[in-house]
Amino acid sequence: DIQMTQSPSSLSASVGDRVTITCRASQSIRNYLSWYQQKSGKAPKLLISDASSLQSGVPSRFSGSGSGTDFTLTINNLQPEDFATYYCQQSYSTPQFTFGPGTKVDIK
Amino acid sequence: QVTLKESGPALVKPTQTLTLTCTFSGFSLSTNGMRVSWVRQPPGQALEWLARIDWDDDKFYSTSLKTRLSISKDTSKNQVVLIMTNMDPVDTATYYCARTTYNFGPLDYWGQGTLVTVSS
To answer: Residue A24: pLDDT above 90?
Structure first.
């Protein structure tokens, strides 16, 4: 099975900051990588697919990059509504999806 | 507008069988490429993919749970059913259903989730 790791596991940031979250796969997954945002008590929301494709309606301050084994989610100009947990997920070994352990972004 | 909603018991006893239903709208599971997955999340933990059923009735299961899972669909009712046998307290989690529209694709729409507690 493909294993996904994320770093950091949590971070504290201020409104207006730039935040970078890293996701690493245990083997190449090409660009079959998605990012989700999950707020407390809510379902995950798809932000980015295919490593860098921003979903319709998602603010442009979110961006994704990477391919192969290393990927990055960047949030520019962090807003109050962005405080949440973020998960990466690989779909290379579809349908055996695997998710990363998550990165919690909270207020400094 | 695509929506999905999970339903099922909130509490099951150890060794019992869990049956969850995902009722969706805004798409048809008879349309080429459509797929519905089940994903769960224990309290405070990460997401775990469980099973998927495709428009052509192909079925796929988590390697670690495949002996306990069964997934089926009723296209006329726009429903997908997940059955998990021999429930254990470690299976306590929020269970979600979610849609995929193409192979290698992401889970683009999710249900709100249903919390299932396993306790005697």
So the answer is: yes
